[in-house]
Amino acid sequence: MDRREFLYQAGLFSASALVGMPGAATPQWSEGRIRHLIPLSNHDSIRIKASFAEPQSGPHLKIGASVFPGRRRDSQGRFWSFHATGLESDTEYELLLQAGGGGPLAESWPVRTAPALDASKEHLRVLMYTCAGGPDDAQWLNGEWRFLPVSTRRRLLRRALDFRPDIAIGIGDQTYFDQWISPRKRGGQHAANRERIYGRYGKFDRDRPLFGSNNEIVLTRCLDEQIASLYGTDFRSIPLILTQDDHDYFENDEGTDEFVTFPPGNFSARLGRAQQSLYFPEFLPDPMRPVHLAGSHADGISESYGSFRWGELAEFLLYDCRRFISLAGPSARFVEEDAERWITARTRDETSVRHLVHVPSTPFGWTAGKWGEWYPDVLQADGRLGVEQPKPYWQSGWFSQHQRLLSAIGGQKSRVPVVVSGDLHAVAAGRILESGGTGLDSPVNVFLSGSIGTGNGWPSNARGIGASPPNDVTIDERLEPVERNGFSILDIDPDGLTVRQFAWDRELGVEAIDTLEPLSEIRLDRG
């Protein structure tokens, strides 16, 4: 394929894939030529990832009298990033994207920077969810949707936005387009899924460059549908943090005699980096986060290990447990060594923020018997999760790292220990009391955030069993895992946190989403 044909095909798909998506624009604001826009802010900067209906040349972001040039992310000029620096904290700015010739690409819109690091704040509201990706085809399998229609996902997110969060966090699995495992699995369902998805997006060629070849067309076909059409411009004024998990490297975590999928191979790692580079912001610089952590850039931008700070009130530590996973037996890790050291140091420093929330991509407190989990539990012959039959290729060092992190989290003296995870396609709440036969200084409050994109009942249908506490972990389950689509809202104030969890399934009807109320509400007070 020559370059002219490449540009034609990519532009033809990109222009048609997003036009007419439900909720693509609101009566109050015109998105113009923007196809998707995701902002992220900290106390002194705003970073934006955006795509356009057609290629651009030299677009820029204008804030007042300041102009910040765009950086092209793809070979065509349809994807751009914008990074505005030197801003005042806790200030609402009016943003305007302009074409290279100076004309507006859309109406202007507001984004607010976060409070100064030493600011005293009384409240923060955070939306949290997981697993928003998946094809938009409402495939009906085993009595359930494999993935929800994108229009239903947008409706769930818009209901969440009704609560006016200050920020939002989507925990991993922004995409489902597994590459190397699905083709090797046999059986009717796997074959049907493979043909359905490969026929939809096309196939990658690992011998060709990722950008400027047919690979780029395949990539953007997938991600335009699963990310750009999902978010559109709905989050234009809500800073949105999207983290990565196994499917964001275009693979499921599996370890067998035939294949072990992580750490990601070079092409899978490049796909994961391209997903982030094109569609959503990397973590912004943080003076308390070392610039040498794996996946970090010299300017402090970080791809895998991040933090978000809201003055002195709250800090979130976000960590990808896939890209730098190691297979080293007793010394294996999910989180790279220097990153673990930083996470532990931030957890033990209780002087700078009143509340600290851990957000790992791999859940604390529950297992579904998957290979790439902290825990050794796996589905046994009698249909329950256990450890009698060992989990192939599971690494004991993963649980050792879990114990170190959990000890630091539970060792906090003045804070409420909190971990919010995704991945397991359920909402749940509990308190870890003991792990590996060792008690904790304080119980660790753990939550599963709720899944946006995957169909109800996926864990049980796909794996033969739902999520449950690991055998070697004692947990007080305040809300046992509910395999419904949903999200969580965290309200943080100086005295504690309130966690509201929402759950919906298709039997309620899509109209019920618009008035969805909490399934559970839990208040956690500082001691």
Topology (elements, then pairings):
Elements: H1 3-18, E1 34-41, E2 46-52, E3 60-63, E4 66-69, E5 71-72, E6 79-84, E7 92-98, E8 109-112, E9 124-130, E10 140-141, E11 144-145, H2 150-161, E12 167-171, H3 188-201, H4 214-231, E13 240-242, H5 266-279, E14 305-310, E15 314-319, H6 337-348, E16 355-360, E17 378-379, E18 385-386, H7 396-410, E19 418-421, E20 427-435, E21 438-449, H8 458-463, E22 473-482, E23 485-493, E24 496-504, E25 520-525
Parallel strand pairs: 9-12, 12-13, 15-16, 16-19, 19-21
Antiparallel strand pairs: 1-2, 2-6, 3-4, 3-7, 5-6, 7-8, 9-23, 10-11, 14-15, 17-18, 20-21, 20-22, 23-24, 24-25
- Using DSSP, what is the number of strands? 25
Proportion of residues in β-strands: 25-35%
Helicity level, as a percent range?
10-25%
Radius of gyration: 22 Å
Counting H and I runs of at least 4 residues, what is the number of helices? 8
Oligomer: single chain
Mean pLDDT: 90
Termini Cα gap: 64 Å
Provide the spatial order of strands within the biggest beta sheet.
14-15-16-19-21-20-22
Largest sheet: 7 strands, mixed
Structural classification = alpha+beta
